[in-house]
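User: Can you write out an input/output pair for a complex, sequences first and structure second?

Assistant: Here is one pair. Inputs:
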Amino acid sequence: MKQYLVVAVIILGSIQAGYAQFEKIPGCTTPVGEIMATRKDTVRSRGMADNYHTWDPGTTLLVKFMPGGSKVLRDKVMLNAKEWEKYANVHFKFLPDDAGFTHIRIKLGQGKGHNSAVGTEAGFRSQMDATVNFDTLGFVDADYYADKLKKQGGQPPFSFFQLMSELRSDPNHWNYKELRRVVMHEIGHSLGLLHEQSYPDAVKWKKTDSIYNYYRQTQGWTKQQVDMNVFSAGSRFYTNGTRYDPTSIMHYSINGWETENGYQVKENYEISAGDKVLIAALYPRGKTSALKVVPKVNITEVGDLLVSYDENRNGLVIKPSFLLRTNSKLGEVYFVARLVDERGYFIKTNSQYFNWGGQSAVYQKIHLLPNSKLSYNKTSKDELELFLPADQLPGLGGKKVKIAFAVYLDDVANKEMDKLMYFSTTNPLSLPTGKF
Ligand SMILES: [Zn+2]
């Protein structure tokens, strides 16, 4: 029985001090990341650097902006993103907005909070979607606008409406220190870094109602989202041999009242010495692989996922097409196709064989050699077919479903399982009536 793991987005948790003078600002309430096909996925905690989702050292990452964002802000984002190039053997190449393929797509918008896909997980997203969101409301100089409102005789807390009104009449007063902090933090995620407070045993959280309430009020997070974004502790495996670093740009600020022992961490505004050690281990200069090499599977050139109903065999034929590349370490790879209902939930099953962690699925374990390149359904010779018999899908005739295709990797040697290497879903399709 396989479990699955989905963490699409890691969220930046804190809000700038000036905002204390305003009532709840929607721009700071960060929605937790899209949980891909389902809202019911469990979330597995991860540690400080996700070794399975880092890019190859020496990679030039193609980056573009999605529509929106002034030149001033874009220039600042580019400048601060490139700060990581000083310490990591990786390069950001910013392309014009109309560029074709990009690895990273940055949206300067409002209302989506600050967040980023973790490393190569950006590849799970459509080229039409951003992989990094910056919320420009989180970059406004809140102190400046609060002072203006005070001079007009107002008393804090000011309302969101008042702030928006000031922004309209007197725009473009930004808090560049905050912008720099947020950009370096989120681009750290884009390179595969995770939250430093997840370092094993680093923070003894007081898991009380007041903490859940605090994050609900400041971030709009549910209990589950707080568990995921704040409390989840990483595995020792992901520390990459580094020590816990409370000065990391990847650390949330922590109030004393949030911990059992009064432990607190102030906002960090710069890439720390520890961050430099970690990023250099993941992207060493003059090397093509990280210091700690883990099995990886790279999926590219993904074509349309072809799904058809086969009358003779009475079932669904699923044909994904892609190129697959393995690295020097051997892992066990599974191709998994699952059914997702109209509401976005994986369909449950009691089937003995067509079952992936309790979900209706067909999967295939693939034996791969290290350093190999394979092609699936790109030519007539490399056919890959996943077949789901209709009798395994009772009651679904006439229903609309989506097929979610995923590639998972088990790193058996390191006992690190269920690494999601690829994920995509089809558009909804109707199953024929009377057959299922
Ligand atoms: Zn974060």
